[in-house]
Amino acid sequence: MTTPNAKNRASQPAMATADGAGTGGGPAARMSQPAIPRRGNNVADKREAILGAALGLFVERGFWGTAVPEIADRAGVGAGTIYRYFESKEALVNAIYRQEKMRFSSSVLEQFPANVNTREQFRTIWMRMAAFATANPSAFIFLELHHHASYLDNESRSVEQRMLEIITAVVHAAQQRRELKPGNTKLLMGMVMGAFVGVTRSCLDFGQPLDAADWAFAEQCVWEAIRS
Questions:
Q1: Which residues lie below 8 Å from residue 137, measured CB to CB, with a gap of 6+?
Q2: pTM of the complete model
Q3: N or C: which end of the chain has fewer CB within 10 A?
Q4: For 108-167, how does the pLDDT look when each residue is reduced to its tens digit (9 = 90+)?
Q5: How buried is residue 87: exposed, middle or buried, by Cβ count under 10 Å (0-12/13-18/19+)?
Q6: CATH of 43-86, one of 1.10.510.10, 1.10.10.60, 3.20.20.60, 3.30.70.100
Q7: Residue 40 — φ and ψ, nearest 5°?
Q8: Contacts of residue 176, Cβ cutoff 8 Å, sequence gap at least 6
């Protein structure tokens, strides 16, 4: 069984979609825009409004297809205001990446059950990822769209690397115990993540939310593919 926290989070309704602005008619274009905090007079309010607006636009239009004035317009601030908080568009996208990657990592790895068997560890990781993607579809797609981007800086890449190192150690140890298929550890991890992203994106493509039973079925299928 998953941990109680993971089970509760995984039971949330999954991937609500809506008709939204965007290009190409793909899942990003139909995704509900992230909530943008109402503009206030203090620094935190404006910064959060900029981050929320930029995340939504980067998902809809991509980094290169988004102009700073468009971010400012959606955030309800002047274009010059953005540069008071972020020295460039690259600095802004990196700030979003680090923020969302750290939230994702915390959601998946916090109080990770290190002393249970591999089957339960895999279920926990999968269901926690499902809970995050369900609750934060724009953030999840943003991370997938940008995690190999050339404009990510060393600090952003180090956040990604720390999470990868932890998961890699778990998978490699399970392979050593012959509980997972032998072979290239990173390839095995890539197969799992590729399947997860495919399931997540299909929810958006077809406007078909997944419930807890659907996520559990998908998890079982992927487990059967990688178990020893």
A1: 15, 16, 17, 31, 32, 200, 204
A2: 0.79
A3: N
A4: 999 999 999 999 999 999 999 999 999 999 999 999 999 899 999 999 999 999 999 999
A5: exposed
A6: 1.10.10.60
A7: -125, -175
A8: none
